[in-house]
Write a structure and sequence with these properties.
It is a single chain. The protein is α/β, with parallel strands linked by helices. It has a single domain, classed as YbaK protein (Alpha-Beta Complex). A 5-stranded mixed sheet has the order 4-2-3-5-8. A 3-stranded antiparallel sheet has the order 1-7-6. Strand 6 and strand 7 form a beta hairpin. It is globular and about 40 Å long.
């Protein structure tokens, strides 16, 4: 498997991880489909969502695959009055990633990252490796340390 920027960053930091490849279905990029393909519980699959707050600008929410981001909670923890998902067409320019392959590691800029507190329930979680068809399996504490993420409740 080809290493992504996210994997190279973990290598450089000496962090243990595994790469998990899967077949991509362009018509179904859902976390539920991914969980089934790699044989993991959806609660351990974390999706990376990019939002824009009315005061602080762009920030990132990393939430369980079976959850939806709570925009009110996300706004509050990020220091905003309101926030919304960025438009899909903006994603590549802001992060360097496309929908279905957005990793919390190795974005173009170091945006504030907020990770849902349930990540701490698991020894390992899965996040995108930075391309469709490839996930990183790693310890959530390592991800938090690498990204400087804030642990909070941002999903429903």
């Amino acid at each position: 498997m080809k290493k992504t920027n996210a994997a190279r960053l973990l290598d450089a930091a000496g962090i243990n991880y595994e790469l998990a490849g899967y077949e991509v279905d362009e018509n179904d990029l859902s976390a539920a489909a991914l969980a089934k393909k790699i044989g993991q519980d959806i609660e351990q699959i974390f999706k990376t969502l990019v939002l824009r707050g009315d005061k602080t600008g762009v920030f990132v929410a990393v939430i369980p695959g079976n959850a939806e981001v709570d925009l009110k909670k996300a706004a509050k923890v990020s220091g905003n009055k309101s926030c919304a998902m960025v438009h899909q067409k903006e994603l590549l320019g802001l992060t360097g990633y496309i929908r279905g392959g957005c990793s919390p590691l190795g974005m173009k800029k170091a945006y504030p990252i907020y990770i849902h507190e349930t990540c701490q329930l698991f020894d390992t979680i899965f996040v995108s490796a930075g391309q469709r068809g490839l996930q990183l399996k790693l310890n959530p504490e390592d991800l938090i340390r690498m990204t400087g993420a804030t642990i909070c409740e941002i999903a429903e």
